[in-house]
Amino acid sequence: MKITELLKKDTLILDLEANTKEDVLNELVGKLDAAGKLSDVESFKRDIWRREEESTTGIGESVAIPHAKSAAVETPAIAFGRSSDGIDFASLDGQPAHLFFMIAASEGANNDHLEALSRLSTFLMDTSFRDKLYAATTTEEIIQAVNAKEAEVEGEAEDSSDDATAKLLAVTACPTGIAHTYMAAEKLQETANDLGLAIKVETNGSSGVKNRLTKEEIDQADAIIVAADTQVEMARFDGKPVIQTGVGKAIHEAEDLLKQASSQNDVSIYHHEGGKSEDEEKGERTGFYKHLMNGVSNMLPFVVGGGILIALSFFWGINASDPDSPEYNAFAAMLNEIGGGKAFFLMVPVLSGFIASSIAERPGFAPGMVGGLIATTVSGASGASGGSGFLGGLIAGFLAGYVTLFVKKAFSRLPDALEGLKPVLFYPLFGIALTGIIMMLINPPLTQLYTGLTHFLESMGGTNQLLVGLIIGAMMAFDMGGPLNKAAYTFGIAMLDAGNYTFIAAAMAGGMVPPLGVALATSLFKNRFTKQEQEAGKTAYVLGACFITEGVIPFAAADPARIIPATVTGAAVTGGLTMLFDIGLRAPHGGIFVMGLVEGGAGTILLYAVSIIIGAIVTALLAGLLKKRIR
Predict the structure, then answer these.
(1) What are phi and psi of 411, to 5 degrees?
(2) What pLDDT does residue 41 have?
(3) Bridge partners, residue 78, by sequence
(4) Cα separation of 32 and 48, whole Å?
(5) pLDDT of residue 624
(6) Active-site residues: which are they?
């Protein structure tokens, strides 16, 4: 919505009579009411003041933008007021405000007032625009100034696209959607600006899709970069030049990617149905790893939420969910049932379903879910319960995906009149049937294999257990969120599903060490790091504490030969110590925020913290010794 659709002549006041903040708000509210924009003046006034109590809307530079979303608004509108003397509005810069824009939005306005607020804030930071508002002598001149500014901004956007050598689009996505997704987007945007290229980047993060690409933008794009380690919506790019690569490459080789896309050198046309694009044939992450990570990333909320709820239930006692135990607590039993009985129960089917949908798109989801459900509920093996668990779920997901592709191929020659029946009848019927039959046949031996493997790992102790911890820790640190890191983490989740909590404890501790260790190194060895790296080290402390291994990437990218050996060594030490101390943790994510859920009480929690601290110190000392002094 344009600002000039909301700002009208009958809501403008060229010379405010008010001398105080309260008077200004009352006068602007009165103007909106006189223009017929409000249904309840007092209610809207209360909403305006409620917003002011949260934080001042005096944004500085002589500007204030009071606003509210209220049921008392009849028609969304903006009121403008100007004070030549200035009024104390408790602005952020402590200076009097001269220009006031009051935004009134109805409750069903779909956040239009926030969009208008964002644009107004941008416009009003322009000194020349403010000068025009100061100089205006009529309401027409105010409207003209706003119209001209909006046209100018739109024109600049068009000019920047026209001046650039290409109109580029990009999509970034990583399995967890926490760090890599946004780091890659920022790097592409920043590098494109440096190269004078026009680009729009869509992020597929943990909170959903942001800055979504429109059909018109895709149609007009010269090339599209898809930097993703998990499944993204690709059908929309059919017939367009597309570069498919991993999200890490967008972080470390953004300039090369952008130059390749803008020149369209060695960029193949993406065909959604049939055949592989040239990028896929070059071995980018579009196969096994990508499908696996699509399953893992969608499964994680069930694992994290369920695991923490189970751990919380133990606060009332280890047997608090058992009705026959004297420790029984109804609320603890409820938490355990939600986390273990429901969230964990769905974990493997969700993994299978999203692996299958990554391979065969939406038609693969139902067969994958059913296959995963069979994997966890049908054992068919004597002395075994719970089916083939995580292992069976992985196999079910890939099986369902490729079975569905076979079914789609088999029905590809049906008459066009039956096209509508494919997704609602043929694909689910035959996909579920074939996947289910195969899983029913192979799950008994899979269950025996999974049970035997679990028992073997659980029986490991002493030196063997220490070795496994060293390997898990090293893998978590080696590629900082890449395939090895995710493989170690996925293994930890698999063991968590099997009821062994030591492996995920080692994985999380090992993943926390790299950013914590390098952050510590920036504090201890300041002469080895630039000022910028020292500032980044402060952020790395927070990221490491939250188990976001990607926080060390900027340091590793700048000096991989020294940082990676240091982080791998420190993380391996931590992983080995946690396994040696036999530390278990039911929460698969959360860093220091879930350390209280470590099994064994305060003593074990302390050992877990000490293991992480020792690994961080080892990393810091090695980094300090290996890195050269900055002159």
Answers:
(1) -100, 10
(2) 93
(3) 7, 103
(4) 13
(5) 92
(6) 67, 174
Query: Which amino acid would we find at residue 438?
Result: I
Q: Is 513 exposed, middle or buried (0-12, 13-18, 19+ CB in 10 A)?
A: buried
**What pLDDT is attached to residue 366?**
94
* pLDDT for position 235: 85
- For residues 112, 184, 208, 342, the Cα torsion angle rounded to the nearest 10 degrees is -160
Q: Is 213 helix (H, G, I), strand (E, B) or coil?
A: coil
Please name the residues in contact with 64: beta carbons below 8 A apart, sequence gap of 6 or more.
Answer: 24, 56, 57, 58, 89, 91, 97, 99, 100, 101
- The per-residue pLDDT for 608 is 94
Alpha-helical (H) ranges within 90-245 are 112-123, 127-135, 139-163, 180-195, 215-220
Secondary structure (H, E, C), 43-85: HHHHHHHHHHHHCCCEEECCEECCEEEECCECCCEEEEEEEEE
Distance CA 3, CA 99 (A): 16
Asked if the domains 3-155 and 168-270 are classified in one and the same CATH topology, the answer is no
Which residue shows structure tokens 């006068």? 27
Residue 131 CA to residue 304 CA, distance in Å, equals: 54
Instruction: Please give the average pLDDT of every successive group of 10 residues along the chain, which has 631 residues.
Output: 79 93 94 92 91 77 84 88 91 86 75 55 73 90 86 58 62 70 82 87 77 89 89 86 87 87 83 50 55 81 78 76 88 89 88 91 92 86 65 91 93 77 89 95 85 65 77 86 71 77 91 94 90 84 84 77 93 94 83 83 92 96 89 63
The C-alpha atoms of residue 89 and residue 56 are separated, in whole angstroms, by 8
Dig out the tokens for 106 from the structure: 């109805």
Phi/psi for 276 (5° steps) reads -115, 145
Q: 119: which 2 tokens?
A: 């644009």
* pLDDT score of 276: 42
Going from N- to C-terminal start, the domains of the chain cover: 3-155, 168-270, 287-455, 462-626
Radius of gyration for the alpha carbons in the chain, expressed in angstroms and rounded: 29
- Residue 438 tokens read as 């195969």
What is the structure's pLDDT at 597?
Answer: 79
Contacts of 85 (CB under 8 A, 6+ apart): 19, 96
pLDDT value of position 365: 94
pLDDT at 631: 63
* CATH class of this structure's domain 3-155: alpha beta
Contact 514, 573 (CB under 8 A): no
Which contacts of 114-123 are long-range, i.e. CB under 8 A and separated by 24 or more positions?
115/1, 116/1, 116/3, 116/6, 116/78, 117/65, 117/67, 119/3, 119/150, 119/153, 120/3, 120/65, 120/78, 121/59, 121/65, 122/153, 123/3, 123/149, 123/150, 123/153
* Alpha helices (H) along 498-530: 502-524
Identify each DSSP E strand in 379-536 by its residue range.
none
CATH fold of 168-270: Rossmann fold (3.40.50)
State residue 282's pLDDT score.
38
Length of the chain: 631
